[in-house]
Write a structure and sequence with these properties.
This protein is an alpha+beta fold. It folds into three domains: 244 residues, YVTN repeat-like/Quinoprotein amine dehydrogenase (Methylamine Dehydrogenase, Chain H, 7 Propeller); 293 residues, YVTN repeat-like/Quinoprotein amine dehydrogenase (Methylamine Dehydrogenase, Chain H, 7 Propeller), CATH 2.130.10; 97 residues, Serine Threonine Protein Phosphatase 5, Tetratricopeptide repeat, CATH 1.25.40.470. Helices cover 18% and strands 42% of the residues. The strands form 14 sheets. Strands 1-24-23-22 form a four-stranded antiparallel beta sheet, with no helix packed on it. Strand 35 and strand 36 form a beta hairpin. Helix 2 packs antiparallel against helix 3, helix 7 packs antiparallel against helix 8 and helix 10 packs antiparallel against helix 11. It is elongated and about 130 Å long. Bound molecules: 2-acetamido-2-deoxy-beta-D-glucopyranose (5 copies). The site of one 2-acetamido-2-deoxy-beta-D-glucopyranose has 4 residues, from strand 17. It is a peripheral membrane protein.
């Protein structure tokens, strides 16, 4: 299926709508009503104009109803019809310059051929379709096949197929090849007269509307029914799609509707050097981050990228994915895949597949041929075909080949398709880190971070110990489960960066989640370029934005997670001062307080750490700098617990903690201290302490 996401954008109630049109640049829909009025709706603001009645020129053209008008795309001509079709030239005072005769019943619709402006086709209640040439009053040829009157007709505008589509009162839709004059396909499904048909000018779909109240969307190459829309507005009379737009206007007995057809997830991929390829409908386009030069980039802002057209794809791309080294890109859609060279978009290999995944090794990939067969290819040659034990409902690429079935997830070795481990989980996505040591398995509710223990797997396979029918028991070690839904993700070192279902851009490292940004819409991660210290994301409208994320911080955190403090110390100087405290908090959470104290630049944080570590000297220094009573009190407490009474006394003094000083002085039997305290307390008006100290001295 096309996975089209259909959303209703506007519902406009009115009298019966007989024709709708979308403005090519403004967000306007024009609806002409059966009662003679014309309305214009703004589908962004949902505001309507008052009904218009236009009259620029009026003339009597036919003796019966006029059912359709067609305007020539370039010449000053319009065609009108009852049983005859008449051509009017508005530059010659609207004179009738030609009459086309041949139909034996009312003509319902006329359309010009977008690929040949001198040709037009007509649909008639005499059950035929006729194709005409301007300049010749009799039809060029007639297409027969419908059993009842034909109401509507449209030309296919894309590609090279010489096709016409028609809909009739026999409830059928027919696709015709007008070169060899045969009916190529009949679409059955509507339960009543078909009133409108449309080859969408951009999307690979056919839209048909019927008096049964439904609009049906069919795939224009496979002719499969993709969806049936019923908005309960009674009979459907007209449909209009627009080039360059995903909006489709529909006219009904009770008003009009605009729907938006889109893809949830854009077909888009970036290689490690910053070249981005995406599919805009069937056209492949490329943009290069490097070509932006040194332009100032702000977080979350749309990047000013120059877009290059790469040509069109033979299938309608639903996904697009670079291989790990970026030399190839695979396009998948409609049960087919094509592997292209990423530079010139030359096809390298193709075939049928339900799904396609790249291996970690750039020369390998797997396809899911059916719900039971998976095939592995190396250097574009089939290496192995196998039937996973419980079937294959989905496959996942990366370090190991993942296969999903009703029974859960099974990981296989790419080389020999041996089962490594079966896990009871229903994954949505799987993301492997570059080293193959960590993997994120994302489900509908949460995600798990697992460590893959390749040495244990090798040892078990060698000795055959710890191997069950579910594979190697110790193959994975759970590092954490996080109750968040991952939409897209990628690894940089041991840091897992992801977008969540609530549009947050986060990363996970060592049990901690850091939020990089709150996104204002759904975004899809494309990749991370360490050289730029930036993360790149795309949205449904193919805009690219970026967010700053320092590679030094990620590297440092990765080194810490690997307990590689030699590496961490090497990276540290490259971390800017303002990021040090964040890193220090991370170290503290990992239990490395000493290192955190060394790294942190925030006095508060450092003081906290110094206290926890019992570092009296450092804490003292920080208390002096901070001049805060609270700090002196905390430090006094620590000093007392360490029997550093001299220091404690000084701290209590700074803290003006007379109660504390009294306790210290009396407990240590220090008469001189009591005397000094009495004077100080009296001076500061601390009468209780002053009284007690004088009393104790017998004064
Ligand atoms: C036709 O219908 C529209 C909306 O339903 C209404 O606003 C308009 O007044 C009607 N026009 C006539 C001529 O009846
Ligand atoms: C259709 O009309 C064109 C132009 O008049 C003519 O060249 C062509 O031969 C005609 N084809 C048929 C099948 O009549
Ligand atoms: C007419 O052309 C279509 C392809 O457009 C082909 O499928 C069909 O078989 C052809 N029919 C005849 C009778 O040549
Ligand atoms: C379908 O068209 C026929 C004429 O072919 C007409 O009699 C019938 O009323 C139409 N159906 C509906 C539901 O209007
Ligand atoms: C691949 O390219 C060849 C030659 O350029 C072409 O004939 C073929 O149709 C292409 N196939 C696909 C599936 O793109």
């Amino acid at each position: 299926p096309l996975r089209l996401d259909i959303k209703r954008k506007l519902t406009a109630r009115s009298d019966r709508v007989k024709s709708v049109d979308l403005h090519p640049s403004e967000p306007w829909m024009l609806a002409s009503l059966y009662n003679g009025s014309v309305c214009v709706w703004n589908h962004e603001t949902q505001v309507t104009s008052r009904p218009y009645v236009f009259q620029l020129h009026m003339f009597e053209a036919h003796s019966d109803y006029i059912r359709c008008i067609a305007v020539h795309p370039t010449q000053p001509y319009i065609l009108t019809n009852d049983m005859l079709i008449k051509l009017w030239d508005w530059e010659k005072k609207w004179s009738c310059s030609q009459v086309f005769e041949g139909h034996t019943h009312y003509v319902m619709q006329i359309v010009f051929n977008p690929k040949d402006n001198n040709q037009f086709a007509s649909a008639s209640l005499d059950r035929t379709i006729k194709v005409w040439q301007l300049g010749s009053s009799s039809p060029n040829f007639t297409l027969e096949g419908h059993d009842k009157g034909v109401n509507c007709i449209d030309y296919y505008s894309g590609g090279d197929k010489p096709y016409l589509i028609s809909g009739a009162d026999d409830r059928l839709v027919k696709i015709w090849d007008y070169q060899n004059k045969t009916c190529v396909q009949t679409l059955e499904g509507h339960a009543q007269n078909v009133s409108c048909v449309n080859f969408h000018p951009e999307l690979p779909i056919i839209i048909t509307g019927s008096e049964d109240g439904t609009v049906r969307i069919w795939h224009s190459s496979t002719y499969r029914l993709e969806s049936t829309l019923n908005y309960g507005m009674e009979r459907v009379w007209c449909v209009c799609g627009l080039r360059g737009s995903n909006s489709v206007a529909l006219g009904y007995d009770e008003g009009s509707i605009i729907i938006k057809l889109g893809r949830e997830e854009p077909a888009m991929s970036m290689d490690t050097s910053g070249k981005i390829i995406w599919a805009k409908h069937s056209e492949i386009q490329q943009a290069n981050l490097k070509a932006m030069g040194d332009a100032e980039i702000k977080d979350g802002e749309r990047l000013p990228l120059a877009v290059k057209d790469m040509g069109s794809c033979e299938i309608y791309p639903q996904t697009l994915q670079h291989n790990p080294n970026g030399r190839f890109v695979v396009v998948c859609g409609d049960g087919e895949y094509i592997i292209y060279t990423a530079m010139a978009l030359r096809n390298k290999s193709f075939g049928s597949a339900q799904e396609f995944v790249w291996a970690h090794d750039s020369s390998e990939y797997a396809i899911r041929e059916s719900s039971s067969v998976v095939k592995i290819f190396k250097n574009f040659k089939e290496k192995k075909s196998f039937k996973p034990d419980f079937g294959a409902e989905g496959i996942y690429g990366g370090f190991l080949l993942g296969v999903r079935s009703v029974n859960g997830l099974a990981f296989y070795d790419w080389d020999n398709t041996e089962l490594i481990r079966r896990i009871e989980i229903q994954p949505k996505h799987i993301f492997w880190s570059d080293s193959g040591e960590l993997v994120c398995i994302a489900t509908e509710e949460s995600f798990f971070i697992l460590r893959y223990l390749s040495e244990k797997v090798a040892a078990s396979q060698e000795s055959n110990e710890g191997v069950t029918e579910d594979g190697v028991e110790d193959a994975f070690e759970v590092q954490g489960e996080i109750q968040e839904v991952v939409k897209t993700g990628l690894w940089v070192g041991d840091c897992f960066i992801y977008t969540s279902s609530v549009n947050r851009l986060n990363y996970f490292v060592g049990g901690e989640i850091v939020t990089i940004a709150h996104l204002d819409r759904t975004m899809y991660l494309l990749g991370y370029i360490p050289k730029d210290d930036r993360l790149y994301l795309g949205d449904k409208e193919l805009n690219i934005v970026s967010y700053s994320l320092l590679v030094s911080v990620l590297e440092y955190q990765t080194a810490v997670m690997r307990r590689d403090f030699g590496m961490a110390d090497k990276v540290l100087p490259t971390i800017p001062k303002e990021q040090r405290t964040r890193v220090a908090h991370f170290l503290e959470k990992q239990g490395f307080k000493q290192q955190a104290l060394a790294v942190s630049t925030d006095p508060e944080h450092r003081f906290e750490l110094a206290l926890q570590l019992g570092e009296l000297k450092i804490a003292y220094q920080l208390a002096v700098e901070a001049e805060s009573e609270q700090k002196w009190k905390q430090l006094a407490e620590l000093a007392i617990s360490k029997c550093q009474f001299g220091l404690a006394q000084e701290c209590l003094h700074h803290a003006q903690d007379y109660g504390g000083l009294l306790l210290l002085a009396t407990a240590s039997g220090n008469a001189a201290m009591v005397a000094k305290l009495a004077e100080g307390a009296e001076r500061d008006g601390k009468n209780n302490v002053a009284f007690m100290t004088y009393f104790l001295q017998g004064k």
